[in-house]
Amino acid sequence: FFPYFNDIFRSPWWEPVAWFDRRFGPHGPVQALLFPFYFARESLLVGELPFRDWRLAALMALAIAALARRGFDRAGGKPAVFAPPGAWRFLAVFTLASYAVWLALYSIYRYLVPLEMLSGPLMVGCALYAVRGTIARVVALVALAAFVVGTTAKPDWGHRPFRGAYFDVAVPEIEPRALVIVGPFDPMAYAIPFFRRDARFVSAQNNFLELSQANLLARRAAGLIATHPGPLYSIDILRRADPVLAHFGLVRVEASCLPIRSYLDDSSMRLCRLARSALYDSRR
Question: How does DSSP classify residue 111?
Answer without folding.
Answer: G
